[in-house]
Design brief:
This protein is 56% helix and 13% strand. The chain has 167 residues and is an alpha/beta fold. The chain has a single domain (2-29, 71-166), classed as Rossmann fold, CATH 3.40.50.300. α2 packs across α3 (43-68), α3 (43-68) packs parallel to α4 (84-92) and α5 packs across α6. It binds shikimate-3-phosphate.
């Protein structure tokens, strides 16, 4: 079984995917970590050396490889649904695609401005809101289910996902 999590930066994909994998006894793949492992570079380093365009190319290649591989829980990157070929790849996979949503205020609280997210580090709440609004249609296009994560614990979200996939 495979379950794919999508959503904006700070929506909880990594935390929820780990907990979900644990409870369903499935392996977990974090696309950003897979990119770092296969390239031997950190995400900020890839952005610095190759720009966002270069990062998106590696992200697409890694997504394709991961989807060809073993089942399990897949946490994508916040920008994965931006490319049409990625959206097609997600739609072609039989796995349910679950969109985690958080408000810009909650996102700003969750994102530590620690240099690990090149596209969010310089953004305040209004900037995050603008970027989220720009991307929202892409996220919605990919999602089979949407879960609002504001004010909810990772366990509550995991329980909801388990309920959704059982139906
Ligand atoms: C990005 C999100 C990041 C990472 C990269 C770009 C984005 O992943 O892939 O910094 O464009 O939203 P997270 O959503 O896991 O932070």
């Amino acid at each position: 079984m495979r379950i794919i999590l999508i959503g904006f930066m700070g929506s909880g994909k990594t935390t929820v995917s780990t907990l979900l994998a644990d409870q369903l006894h499935l392996p977990v793949t974090d696309l950003d970590q897979a990119i770092e492992q296969s390239s031997g570079k950190s995400i900020p380093q890839i952005f610095q050396e190759s720009g966002e365009e270069g990062f998106r190319t590696v992200e697409h290649q890694t997504l394709t490889t991961v989807l060809r591989g073993r089942d399990g829980i897949l946490a994508t990157g916040g920008g994965t649904p931006l490319r049409a070929d990625n959206r097609r790849a997600l739609a072609a996979d039989p796995a349910p695609v679950i969109l985690l949503h958080a408000s810009p205020e909650e996102t700003a609280r969750r994102i530590q401005h620690n240099g690990e997210r090149p596209l969010a580090d310089a953004l305040d709440t209004a900037g995050l809101a603008a970027l989220l609004a720009k991307r929202q249609a892409r996220y919605d296009e990919c999602a089979d289910f949407t879960i609002d994560t504001d004010g909810r614990t990772p366990q509550e979200i995991v329980d909801q996902i388990i309920g959704l996939i059982k139906d």
